[in-house]
Amino acid sequence: MRTISIRLEDAIYEELSEMLDAMGQTKQTFYESFTRTALRERRIPFIISAPAKTRSTEEDDKLAAFARLEASRKSFSGSTE
Predict the structure, then answer these.
(1) From CA 59, how far away is CA 68, in angstroms rounded?
(2) Contact, 56 vs 50, CB < 8 A?
(3) Helices (H) and strands (E) in the chain, counts
């Protein structure tokens, strides 16, 4: 059997302890259950996602400038493309 060490912020550690105590579980059983589930399902047993990337104001400004330039070009050339 191997031993692992995990660092957690104090507040997270305390909150986890309180939750597990209320469930009648220990941190060891929690981590072991998590690990067994991950191995059995071959995935992390919860969804990890990143927020959708939105365009920056700078990108919006560049697109607006390009649109103005294109409108100017069309009006100068008399083109209706």
Answers:
(1) 14
(2) no
(3) 3, 0
Query: In the chain, what percentage of residues exceed pLDDT 90?
Result: 52
Give the mean pLDDT of 39-66.
80
Residue 45: other Cβ atoms inside 10 A? 13
Q: Are 67 and 60 in contact (CB under 8 A)?
A: no
Phi, psi at 33, each rounded to 5°: -65, -45
- At 53, is the secondary structure helix, strand, or coil? coil
Q: The tokens of 58 are what? A: 């700078």
For Cα atoms 47, 13, 21, give the angle at the middle one, nearest 5 degrees: 90
Residue ranges per structural domain of the chain: 10-46+53-77
38-51 residue pLDDT tens? 999 999 988 877 67
- DSSP code of residue 51: P
